[in-house]
Amino acid sequence: MKRLLDYSNAIKKFLRESRAEIKKVFWPTKKDVWYSTLVVIGLTVVVGSYIGLVDVILTRLLSLFIGTTP
User: Fold this and answer.
1) 20-62 pLDDT per residue, tens
2) Domain count within the chain
3) Cα-based distances in Å from 49 to 42, 43, 54, 55, 57
4) Gap between the Cα atoms of 27 and 20, Å rounded
5) How far is CA 9 from CA 4, 14, 50, 58, in A?
6) Cα separation of 48 and 40, whole Å?
7) In whole angstroms, how far apart are CA 32 and each of 13, 23, 41, 43, 45?
8) Alpha-carbon Rg for the chain in angstroms
9) How far apart are CA 22 and CA 39, in angstroms?
10) Which domain holds residue 32?
11) Is this model's pTM higher than 0.90 or not?
C-alpha cells in the first residue's frame, strides 16, 4: 500500500512540476508561426528545385557517357 502511495505522490509531483514548466515556455505568436511556415515552404521549394535540376543534369550527362537516351 505504501508503494502505491509513493507512486501517487510521484505522479502528483511530476504533474505539478510539468505545469510550472509549461508556464515558463515562450509560445510564439500566430504571426511568428505564419512567417516560419512560409520560410519552411519556401526553402522546401528551393531545395527541391535544386535537387531536381541536379538530377536532370546528371541524368543527361550519364546518358551521354552510356550512349542511351534519357
Assistant:
1) 999 999 999 999 999 999 999 999 999 999 999 999 999 999 9
2) 1
3) 11, 10, 9, 10, 12
4) 14
5) 9, 9, 55, 63
6) 12
7) 33, 19, 14, 17, 20
8) 27
9) 27
10) 2-66
11) no
Grid cell digits, residue 14: 511530476
Q: Please check whether residue 59 is in contact with residue 68, taking contact to mean a CB–CB distance below 8 angstroms.
A: no
The three cell numbers locating residue 7: 507512486
For 59, residues 6+ apart whose C-beta sits below 8 A from its C-beta are: 70
**Amino acid symbol at 13:** K
Look up cell 541524368; give the residue.
59
CA–CA dist 6, 22 (Å, integer) = 24
